[in-house]
Amino acid sequence: MPATATTSRSVLRQAISGQRRQVTLASVLAAGHQGGEALVPVIIGVVIDQAVDGGSVGTLVVWLAVLGVVFAGLSYSYRFAARAAEGASLRAAHDLRLAISRRVLHPGGGAENGKLAGELVNIGTSDAQRVGVVNAALPFGIAALAGVLVSAVALLRISLPLGLLVLLGTPPLLYLAHLIGKPLERRSEAEQERSAHASGIATDLVSGLRVLKGIGAEPAAVARYRDTSQNSLKATLRAARAKAWHDGAVLALTGIFIAIVALVGGNLASSGSISVGDLVAAVGLAQFLLTPFLIFSWVNGELAQGRASASRVAGLLTTPAAVEPGDGELPSPATGNVRLTGVSYGSLRGVDLDIPAGQLVGVVAADPAAATDLLDCLGRAGDPVEGEVHVDGVDLSTVDPDRVREVVLVAAHDADLFEGTLAENVGSAPDEALAASAADEVAAALPDGTATAVTERGRSLSGGQRQRVALARALAADAPVLVVHDPTTAVDTVTEAKIVTGLARLRQGRTTILVTTSPALLAVTDRVVVLDGGRVTGEGAHAELARDRADYRAAVLS
Fold it and tell me: Which subcellular locations apply to this protein (predicted)?
């Protein structure tokens, strides 16, 4: 059995077992409702035989009172069953969303590999909801089965052939419905995958809208999304056709089965084997059977879609972590000595680098991918394929990622801000951190200063303002080792000069690695390391490298 199938069933089992009490309550109440519905035609048949044919008004009143009680019970049992089932569905979906969020935000990472942000959102919303709906569908499936069993017992009382027809005919019908649901399950999974991909593309395009406009790439972006959207639409239409075929086929099977039950009952009545009241009850039960079989059809469709979504959820939850937790310990407090020995990771090839504690070092990477890979290794977003990264003599691959990031703070170039006020984004940043990053000027320019609300990802701020606020947040953390990637690409030269001076002053005596090609930043470093072709090809003072190396001048001064 494929591992994915096993884990998808596990997701479904956990969703149900997590709400076992609510699902059980809903099942009991819904079964009572369907059982009561099945008793209605039986009671009407008894009324005809005992009260109408017998002409007893008293008996008629008694049985009408019984019908009233049954209908009152039906009303309340359905209401509370629906409430319990919907509650179980919503809670299960909520629990799944929490589990998905924990996996995506896990320090070990890995869940985002190969997936766009919109795809992760789709799994955490639409797929989680579809899995949760299984808790709403299951009680009514059990209730429908209870209705069929009560109908079969009643028909056995009326006529053995009728009862056996229902009892023996229901299992094959349910199995056929299960087989009919297989194409719907496959199409539903494809639909969700295409929909998630389209959401991911849309999210990326919206987040990069300014860049797209800046380089005049709107037509290409529109064409790309149009193709993706059309593929998603085609998958949705295929799923819709599969669902229509599924519902129609199950309804046709159900109609044929009910017609056979009614036909057999009519023949028995015409031969005198059953009474008029029994015939009315049999016909009423045959008509009632349409409801549980329609419920079976709906439940089977929801289960098919739930299994498809559970497979996608399971695939995300079981994604291996990019880095594993370790039992190594970094010293506390850490001094911040950083050493890379023969590190190969991504585009890095045998990188050797020694940064004494307290030194301010610049790193110039001709290939942007090499810069990103270096940041991943230093922040333990990934472990080297070969070689080791040490901080204070401790191999980072042996240390829990959370602890690594307490000591080594990587401030990525594209770090996002959060929705909230400016003060909430920078945390307890002291005035020195705000001043060093020139974020104090940002606060001064806003209507409510640091109390000004910032929209999601800081989109209400300009690119330069976002960079300065993100840098202030990184400086405020006062980490033993700070790795900053291109913190001044969106600011003017005057502001950059202020940031350079403030950063060097504030981080004096603390290990700081500036991965950048900014001449202003590189000029204040103790030394500069040059990465070319994924290898260290030189190091020295910025002025010396700019004078002696043409490739360095091309990377930094062009």
Answer: Cell membrane
pTM of the model: 0.69
What gap in Å lies between CA 519 and CA 496, rounded to an integer?
10
pLDDT tens digits, one per residue of 195-230 = 666 666 666 666 665 555 656 667 777 777 778 778
- What CA–CA distance (Å, rounded) separates 207 from 507? 32
What does the block give as tokens for 9? 């069933």
Short-list 166, 163, 142, CA closest to 295: 142
Strands 511-515 and 386-391: unpaired
Q: Are 499 and 491 in contact (CB under 8 A)?
A: yes
- C-alpha to C-alpha distances, 554 to 372, 485, 546, nearest whole angstrom: 20, 19, 9
Polymer length of the chain: 558
Distance, in Å, from the CA atom of 464 to the CA atom of 490, rounded to the nearest integer, reads: 5
Between residues 4 and 252, which one has the greater pLDDT? 252
Beta bridge partners, 527, equal 361
pLDDT of residue 2: 38
Q: Which residues of 68-97 are buried (b: 16+ CB within 10 A; e: fewer)?
A: eebeebbeebbebbbebbbbbbbbbbebbb
Contact 513, 482 (CB under 8 A): yes
